[in-house]
Amino acid sequence: MKIRIGLLIASKVEIRFIGVFHNDKSEIITGDYTYDARNLTAKEEIFIPEIPDSSFFEVKNIIIGKDFHWQRKETQRFKGNLILRNNGKDITLINILSVEDYLVSVISSEMCANASLEFLKAHAVISRSWVVARILHRNTTNLLNNNGMIDTPNERIRWYDDSQHIGFDVCADDHCQRYQGVTRITNHNAINAVKATEGIILTYKGEIADTRFSKCCGGAFEKFENCWDDTPHPYLAPGIDYISANINKHSKFDLTKEENTQSWIETEPTAFCNTQNREVLSQVLNVYDLETTDFYRWKKEYTPIELSEIVRERSGIDFGMILHLIPMQRGVSGRIIRLKIVGSKRTMVIGKELEIRRILSRSHLYSSAFTITKEITSSSTDSNYKFIFHGAGWGHGVGLCQIGAAMMAHKGYNYKDILHHYYRDCELLHISRL
After folding, report:
1. pLDDT band per the 50, 70, 90 thresholds, residue 184
2. DSSP per-residue codes, 99-134
């Protein structure tokens, strides 16, 4: 099975062909090339390596972490075929290769290639499940939910999903799964993990499971419907990121209640992802991820002027001066899914999880599992208060928690244990060779 990955869309692209490639005119292509959408006559050109295992192409200025706090550009190296598609304004670069080769790159890009084998095997299974579902259903809406939005004068509830891309199956960034070519495949661990789980996917009642994952759940799992459309996924159930009788008192916390969420975040309860183990974190996190040190619990402060400017820029709505932020509804992990913003000019409720994170930060807040304190200050400016967020986790908290899963592997759990912890009542199924 082949997959088409959208690498880059830009008006001009710079590519270095390492080894010999042939285009669809049977011309030999090797070395450095610059393609400008305005100067190209062909709408599409295909480049095929003469020797697939020893020929590569490098692309400059690929954006990673788009709109997140670690956004940057990189030069990345890829194997497989390349399609250059031109619409006269922009060029789209599409990489074509086998699903299994794609997975080796994904699990080396989502985390480090030298992560523990059981953790990489677990991630290979969920990454395979996710992408196979999208390929098999590329011409249907089953398992693919369009971005949704409820927009009224008093409420904006929006969710973002992996709707079908035009001309390719998945993109190369966090919107789908991180795919950074062969750049970060630094040893055989990722290759061995993919081979050991070849053809294995996760299913629920005969259907391929929607295997969501996030960086750090913050200690509690969130429901699917609190982050995306209102379709329950029973296997993506609420729960605590731990397996122990000692956690029972925490598992009884109803984190949809404000007072319980505050206690949960302030006390930093035991969880697999509650770790400062640098050995484990360095396996899970690539260099740019390690720039972030406060995964499990974090703090953010805003002056009302700063926050008001950010909200206006990110939402396109002028609330005036932000006066109050009031959680109206929390999910089962304590994540805010409906937030009332009270400004001097207007009041409005926003949601769901990612929209709240997007609007309250110039990149994205780590998660929407945060408490809000309005603290009086001695400032001599027009405002004498500030907002303080105390938060938990990094990401939506649905499905596998990458840091938690890595710690489980570190503690001796195998990949099947890890998968059953995060995807309840799911089964492993071996499908035909991809």
Report:
1. confident
2. HHHHHHHHHHHHS-TTS-HHHHHHHHHHHHHHHHHH
- Per-chain mean pLDDT for the chain: 88
DSSP 8-state class, residue 72? E
Nearest to 59 by CA among 38, 37, 84: 84
- The CB density around residue 282, as the number of other CB atoms within 10 Å, is 17
Distance CA 269, CA 249 (A): 10
CA–CA distance, 16 with 32 (Å, rounded to integer): 4
Tell me the percentage of the chain whose pLDDT exceeds 90.
Answer: 67
Going by C-alpha positions, the residue among 202, 244, 213 that lies closest to residue 400 is: 213
- Give the model's confidence band at 410: pLDDT under 50 very low, under 70 low, under 90 confident, else very high: very high
**In Å, what is the CA distance from 103 to each residue of 2, 108, 124, 355?**
12, 8, 6, 29
Q: Which amino acid is at 99?
A: V
Q: Give me the pLDDT at residue 138, please.
A: 64
Q: What is the DSSP string of 290-320?
A: GG---SSEEEEEE-HHHHHHHHHHHHS----
Pairing of the two strands 2-10 and 170-171: parallel
Cα–Cα nearest to 382, from 303, 310, 312: 303
> Regarding predicted confidence, which is higher, 81 or 376?
81
Name 195's Cβ contacts closer than 8 Å, sequence gap at least 6.
Answer: none
434/412 Cα distance (integer angstroms):
30
Predicted confidence at residue 278, as pLDDT, reads 86
Q: Is the pLDDT of residue 246 over 90?
A: no
Q: Using one digit for the tens of pLDDT, what is the confidence trace for 352-394?
A: 999 999 999 988 899 999 999 999 887 656 578 999 999 999 9
DSSP-derived secondary structure letter, 229:
S
Decide the pairing of beta strands 12-23 and 56-64. Answer: antiparallel
What does the pLDDT look like over 143-168, one tens digit per residue? 444 467 888 999 999 988 755 577 89
Cite the DSSP H helix spans in 299-429: 304-315, 353-359, 402-410, 415-422
11-50 exposure pattern, b = at least 16 Cβ within 10 A, e = fewer: eebebebebebeeeeeeebeeeeebebeeeeeeebbbbbe
First to last CA, the chain: 5
- The β-bridge relationship of strands 155-159 and 347-351 is parallel
